[in-house]
Input
Amino acid sequence: MKYISTRGAAPELEFEDVLLAGLARDGGLYVPAELPSFSAEEIESWRELPYSKLAFHIIKPFVGGAIDDDALARMLDETYAGFGHRAVAPLAQLDHNEYVLELFQGPTLAFKDFALQLLGRLLDHVLTKRNERAVIIGATSGDTGSAAIEGCRHSNHIDIFIMHPHNRVSEVQRRQMTTVLEDNVYNLAVEGNFDDCQSMLKQCFADQSFLRGERRLVAVNSINWARIMAQIVYYFYAALNLGAPQREMAFSVPTGNFGDIFAGYLARKMGLPVSQLVVATNQNDILHRTISQNRYEKHPLAHTLSPSMDIVVSSNFERLLFDAHDRDGAVLADLMNKMSTETVELDPQRMASVRELFDSYAVDDDTTCQTIRAIYDDTGYLLDPHTAIGVKAARETRRSMQCPMITLGTAHPVKFSDAVEKAGLKTPDLPHHLTDLMDREERFDVLQNDLNALQTYVSEKVFG
Ligand SMILES: *Cc1c(COP(=O)(O)O)cnc(C)c1O
Output
């Protein structure tokens, strides 16, 4: 399998290199040159498979022989054996034909474990084979950091540095990162906000001389192709459980960087009968404004009760735009340049084709809390604020009551007690494997908001 850049001017890569690459050299994102596609009979034949075996069939074509089948199957078994529910991605039912796909049964209680548990193992496998060591530097507003650390803590080939904004992530989120005490894990509380962390991260990737050419710098944010790839699987899993491929399915996806929902779009292109995808956003609604009004315009960041969806621009949207522009990299490079500096209206016909599949809806904090409350009162089921936005958006935009509507449950409510309490409800207990989280020893260093301080820190730790 070959991978190409959305901006058409970077070298084609094979799977292993795409795994280790961040942004393409031309500033674009890597996508498969051709998608695998499955017949209805083939999809049907997977109905009885447990999650990790289904994952093997879906992921194998993307890996394209770079990892042998036995090793890939073993990694997938190990990855999903670590989840807290035997079904890995169980469905909860809220109403007739209305479901939540619980993607928060992994070690850090958010859907990011699905991809990052696998990514850690894939990286370790490839680095071992090449006898290389890598440095991961990441920035997190909460969920990505803990999932990435959990995914890499056991690797002998990776040093992982995760920046979080000092005193600006919840205590559960911080402790999920800082109580991991392995020698290759470094938590940095940066005296700044999430944007500051992200901007230092970008600069580290732009000029890697602080690693003296001796270590490869790897990205674990959602532009990493392998993360998207792993997320395709649960669309198939949920749909098969509810009667696909004989039946169409709709999905509502709480969306920030458009990674998770892009995986649903790919599932459809690979043969899954998906009739509708709902882009559910919070007040940071650039995607909703783009899809509903065809106006792509950056607004300042708003801090909401669903912080994992607090974004100004949505990086993976570029991958959809690439397809919507007939995969013309030169056209897309121009468009993305324009979009970085000005308000853009997309070609109306291309937008119309996007809208054939996608709907969108934005939910403010008050409505988020009301939704948490209303669903709890009706069903006894407690939603986290991100998932609540998904459920609300699904109800507002649903095209058919005959077709099952599945909202992706992106996080466990215990991670977001602010919203749960604002909804007038009690935060649930931590799940079994985390009951002692609040008593565990923490380790992190506070770092100035300064690129030089970061790079000095990293190189001292890596090179000793
Ligand atoms: C990361 C995250 C999202 C947004 O996912 P994207 O792939 O960026 O769209 C939504 N909900 C939760 C809980 C998350 O952690």
